[in-house]
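Give me the fold.
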Amino acid sequence: MRSEKYPSELLEQAVDAISSLPGVGEKSALRLALHLLRQPVDNVRHFTDSIRNLRENVKYCRTCMMISDDEECAICRDGSRDHNTICVVENVRDVMSIEATGQYHGVYHVLGGKISPIDGVGPSDLKIVELKNRVAALTQTAGAENLEVILALSGDVEGETTSFYIFRQIAGFGVKVSALARGLGFGDDLEYADQLTLGRSIVNRQVFKP
């Protein structure tokens, strides 16, 4: 049923859908809906088709869990990368932020979040078992002494908890475990760090101390 404040039920439905996106309030959603209404139909169709194709067809790399158009992402397929150095991050945005620095040439492992009991996220909800299995396999092929796992998680309580949990899971393999240098402030997300600071934190990474 149409609300009295909207002249059209279709407009109201569009505003409701757009405002469900994170960080988009009702006023912003209305502005975006009216903007789309002024665009040619073909442009709007291309916009909606792109979003639907993303949701329906995007894949997750079988090795690192990064989003990809194929079964394995471009980074994992790149033979010039250092496949014995794995940078563990929370999400895809973190990979993009680190790549933008141009200072890292290893590969990644995307957890899909961080341990947060208050949000109902436990270790089993993340790709930690996959990371452990990956490290175990690499110790057999490359040798533990040649491997490094970089814990590049946010510096808040949840990020530190996740880093400590991962360390306990892989410490028995004897691989080097490091963490970003503390150029980032407590609680900072990687995506909000400037490229220079983030790049230095990667280059100057330190041995992880639980």
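The CA atoms of residues 52 and 140 lie 41 Å apart.
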